[in-house]
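Name: Lipoprotein
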Amino acid sequence: MRKILLATLPLLLTACVDDSASYYVGGSGSSHALTVKREQEHLWKRDAAVSLILSRWPDCQRRISLGSMPAKDVEIELFGLGEQTWILRDGNQLWQVETQTCTELAAPKAEAGDLLGVFRVEGGKLVFVPAVLSPAGAPGAAETPGAPADGPADEGQAADAAPAGGGAPASGKAAQ
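Structure predicted for Lipoprotein:
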């Protein structure tokens, strides 16, 4: 019995989630980033602890808890309010943070700023999907791939468009 239990232990551990996705301010490889991390402690738990890691090296780095969310349904929108102020939205929950000193600010009443993209689960992995300009190209009008659109989109646009704010997406393990 003990051998069976030991043999199945690795299978139980592989179902746990521990991943992250980053938005790099100013492009890939920048030392200024916002990283969302999800951690599911046990296989039998549906929810995962989700946190935001703010980093602007060498000045600051801080981890802020965003609470518990269903591990498979994490979807957090990122809005930019200038060079170092950000709003994150998950449904009706809003967080406002700044990366000058890597602190959480009072929650805003509503989202504002430019939609930069969405942290979401795709193919079982947490990824950052950058927003692209709408086909009309109207300032401030952005949509994320996979979101419903008002009309047909230019198929080449998503591959050619850079995220607003000059940031770049990345996925993988976060440095802690």
